[in-house]
Design brief:
Blueprint lengths: L1 H36 L13 E14 L5 E12 L12 E6 L14 H8 L8 E8 L5 E10 L5
């Protein structure tokens, strides 16, 4: 009988010892499973992609704001996405564009710059004049003319 009690005690101790190991392993496995279940969060940095369009348009109105700034409302005739991106401008759409001058190191408009000179010349456009150039949709949801290929006023009657 003592042998049975001794064997039973050894068996009991051995099984309790193995349960302790199993109990210790379960939380580790649970932690591993929890870690695997959590998806990696994407970085919160948002990038902004410039949306430029090459367009031709017919002038509707021109509002001079100050010495350099103006608002030009045009009816889009053709719109081609720049760099083969998707454009948000479509033909027959009416948009208002603002000038996007290139600034010098003192944050002043440099009219000697040929790009700025052509943008500044748009102040001479009249109703039904034609504009061909590059327009960019900026973060502030305004359209800015960044390049002027050519412009022409209608023939005088």
């Amino acid at each position: 009988m003592k042998n049975y009690i001794l064997i039973f005690t050894i068996f009991l101790l051995a099984s309790c010892g193995s349960k302790k190991e199993t109990v210790k392993e379960e939380p580790l496995n649970a932690q591993k499973i929890e870690q695997q279940k959590e998806p990696q969060q994407p970085s919160q940095v948002t990038t902004y992609k410039e949306n430029s369009t090459l367009l031709s348009g017919l002038v509707d109105t021109l509002e001079l704001i100050d010495e350099y700034q103006f608002k030009l409302t045009i009816k889009v005739i053709t719109a081609i996405p720049d760099n083969w991106n998707v454009t948000v401008i479509e033909p027959d759409q009416i948009i208002t564009i603002l000038p996007a001058y290139i600034m010098d190191e003192n944050k002043k408009i440099e009219l000697q710059n040929p790009i700025n000179m052509k943008i500044f010349e748009l102040r001479n456009l009249k109703k039904k004049g034609i504009l061909i150039g590059k327009v960019t949709l900026a973060k502030d949801n305004n359209y800015y003319v960044t390049k002027v290929d050519t412009w022409q006023n209608p023939p005088e009657e």
